[in-house]
Design brief:
It is built from 8 helices and 9 strands. The protein is of the alpha/beta class. It has 2 domains: 170 residues, 3-Layer(aba) Sandwich (Rossmann fold); 70 residues, Pantoate--beta-alanine Ligase, Chain: A,domain 2, CATH 3.30.1300. The strands form 2 sheets. The protein has a 6-stranded parallel beta sheet with strand order 1-4-3-2-5-6, with helices on both faces. It has a 3-stranded antiparallel beta sheet with strand order 7-8-9, covered by helices on one side. α7 packs antiparallel against α8. It starts with a strand and ends with a strand.
């Protein structure tokens, strides 16, 4: 497994692979890898000749009061997990932005509401870094988890609107045995906070099965939970989406409406 941090080296590798006509699978991550990420890697490994994992904690998608500084960065553990799953190349740049960087990608419709309202500028940072990673790695397929539902919507729209030549593969949310959706931020939770998170996930899944008023019912039930602060509950066309704060940790989740 190759591990590179240089933008120029990444461009050389991706150009050579693109010329060979091999199917290249990309799994973009911010590191702190878990089984959810590995599910994406295995899907890419199954469908592509070459698999690239990117590890980059992208500063442009964090707000000024968010957890950029303390976001977990267990590099050696991440590399060991990638090596075990047969990843061909890990691209882990130190920085992807020029000192006078002034160009961004901004989607203006599906990024509204939900996380777009709670985290102003977040999806501008996401769209910008994902397009940069697409340009640098030149994948044929790119793999994302459904847990980040609005992120998936934004990236789909960006790829469509900007004619990006990549196939998006969206993989269902992976959950721990207790039902909590896997997330790098779960490691922030104390045992007591995790129990609250599990109840959040349980109620969301239960609400998604209700035939009517599932968003209102879920919001009311979540407000009853001690140790949980509701950010939002929103019903999209086919999904029930929610975000909560448990202590200082913000968790998001979603379920398809039955």
């Amino acid at each position: 497994m190759k591990v590179i941090s240089s933008i120029a080296a990444m461009q050389r590798h991706s150009a050579a692979w693109a010329q060979s006509g091999e199917r290249i699978g990309l799994v973009p991550t911010m590191g702190a890898l878990h089984e959810g990420h590995m599910t994406l890697v295995r899907r890419a490994r199954k469908e592509c000749r070459k698999v690239i994992v990117t590890i980059y904690v992208n500063p442009t998608q964090f707000g000024p009061k968010e957890d950029l500084a303390r976001y977990p960065r267990p590099r050696e553990q991440d590399l060991a997990m990638c090596r075990k799953e047969g990843v061909d190349l890990v691209f882990a740049p130190d920085n992807l932005y020029q000192p006078d960087h002034s160009t961004f990608v901004e989607e203006s419709v599906v990024s509204q509401g939900r996380d777009g309202a709670s985290r102003p500028g977040h999806f501008r940072g996401v769209a910008t870094v994902v397009l940069k990673l697409f340009n640098l790695t030149r994948p044929t397929n790119a793999y994302f988890g459904q847990k980040d539902a609005q992120q998936v919507d934004v990236i789909r729209r960006m790829v469509r609107d900007l004619d990006v030549p990549v196939k998006l593969v969206i993989v269902p949310t992976v959950r721990d045995p207790d039902g909590l959706a896997m997330s790098s931020r779960n490691r922030y939770l104390s045992p007591e906070e995790r129990a609250v998170g599990v109840e959040f996930a349980r109620l969301l899944q239960l609400a998604a099965k209700r035939k009517s008023r599932n968003a209102g019912w879920l919001a009311a039930e979540l407000k009853k939970i001690s140790g949980l602060k509701l950010d939002y509950v929103e019903r999209t066309e086919d999904r029930l989406c929610a975000a909560v704060f448990i202590g200082k940790t913000r968790l998001i989740d979603n379920e398809r409406v039955k």
